[in-house]
Each structure stands twice: as structure tokens, then as C-alpha cells.
Design goal:
mainly alpha; single chain; 47 residues
Length: 47
């Protein structure tokens, strides 16, 4: 959601930081806390 608000937020901040954990979860679309998906989460996945 922040990506959609980037132009608005840019007026208020000096930089944006997106953590690799966030990017990995978004890329793989896996929630490590989800009971049905957590077994598929691989902390060593190259993504």
C-alpha cells in the first residue's frame, strides 16, 4: 500500500526503505505465520 502512496509520502520523508523480508514474502506470496503455508516457507530461498 505504501508503494501506491509513494508520491504523497515522498513529500514527508528523506528516503524509503523496504526490507528484504518484505520483498521475499511478497515475491513468494507466503505468510510464514499461516498454518497451511508455513511449511512451504524456506528461509534460505534465493528470492
Amino acid at each position: 500500500s505504501s508503494a501506491l502512496l509513494a508520491p504523497t509520502l515522498a513529500a514527508e520523508v528523506d528516503f524509503f526503505s523496504v526490507g528484504t523480508n518484505d520483498l521475499t514474502q511478497y515475491t513468494l506470496a507466503i505468510d510464514r505465520g499461516h498454518p497451511e503455508l508455513s511449511a512451504q516457507a524456506d528461509g534460505l530461498h534465493p528470492a
